[in-house]
Amino acid sequence: MNQSALVLRTALLLLLLMYSTDAEMTIVTTKQDVQVGEQILLLCKAGAEGEITWTKDGVDIDEENVKKFDETSSKMIINKATMQDAGRYSCHCEFDSGHIDKTERQLYVYEGPSFGQTTTYHEFLKDTDGVVPCLVTGQPAVDVQWFRDNKEIPSHEGSHMRQLSDNSLLIKNVKREDAGTYVCRAQIRGRPVFQNLSVSVVINAPPTARLREEQKKVLAGPESNVTLLCLVDGHPQPNINWTMPNSIDPSRHHFNSDRSQLTIRSVTRADHGEYVCTATNKIAESSATIMLYVFGWFSSL
Model pTM? Predict the structure, then answer.
């Protein structure tokens, strides 16, 4: 006996031990939902000696798929399931006592669900409409639901988010808070068989740059420092650059890590003029200007 046959016989023996009964006929299977290509194994336990036969949807099953396991049981095997193998399987027994009985078991065969070439990363521009596709295939039929934060997204006409007839998710007038991970769930209709696909949504926004003041006044002197703060927003995170008047000593200009804050130390009259903060990302750029007035005169001589 080869190894695969030994494994199969062991599985059948375990099924008999788990489900054996003298009271009634029973069909035992490892699972009720079978994927295309998987093996179907049904074990009929009659409970007493007799002649056992099999039918599917009322039609006799080929004898090549049926084997007698012992005097009270029979097994039916399909090595590679197809969609046509779904149906109601019946085990009939004509007992040696003359009594006739049968038992039935419904089997479901499915293919998929799968998501094919569905894109799992999307970028949308703020205040536009975003459509997130979910390309699903499967048999016999597949239902699609969308989730966010483990909650199903309700689909109502006119709502901010809703599922379209092609299973895509429509996000109307997208906002920054719509960014995140969405889950498309594809489920074989009426069966507990499903697959999830996580999709990342990024919301881009053009940069905005503004300064708290349009002008600032400061006295020149070795102890005089001034700080200019540029308030920037946007996604992706904008890069910040400053345009400044020519300075006799640019080493006195100090920036924080993202260059949103410019500090000028030991202010001199040469620092007088316009300062322009420009924020740039891949969407656009935005600028803000402040006029720095420096009064008095400081000389190191």
Answer: 0.79
Burial of 22 (0-12, 13-18, 19+ CB in 10 A): exposed
Query: Is residue 50's pLDDT more than 80?
Result: yes
Residues 11 and 99 in one domain: yes
Residue 113 CA, distance from chain mean position: 14
Asked if 220 and 253 sit in the same domain, the reply is yes
Among candidate residues 111, 140, 167, the one where a domain is terminated: 111
Cis peptide before 236 (omega within 30 of 0): yes
Question: Do 95 and 41 share a domain, yes or no?
Answer: yes
Of 162, 164, 160, 190, give the one whose Cα is nearest residue 178.
Answer: 160
Q: Is a pLDDT exceeding 50 seen at residue 21?
A: no
Q: What range does the domain containing 19 cover?
A: 3-111
Give the CA-trace dihedral at 137, 143, 148, 152, to 10 degrees. 180
Same domain, 61 and 78: yes
Could you report the per-residue pLDDT of 58-108, keeping only the tens digit for each? 999 988 889 988 889 999 999 999 999 999 999 999 998 889 999 999 999
The Cα–Cα gap between 141 and 168 comes to 17
DSSP assignments along 245-276, one per residue: ---S-GGGEEE-TTS-EEEE-S--GGG-EEEE
pLDDT at 164 over 50: yes
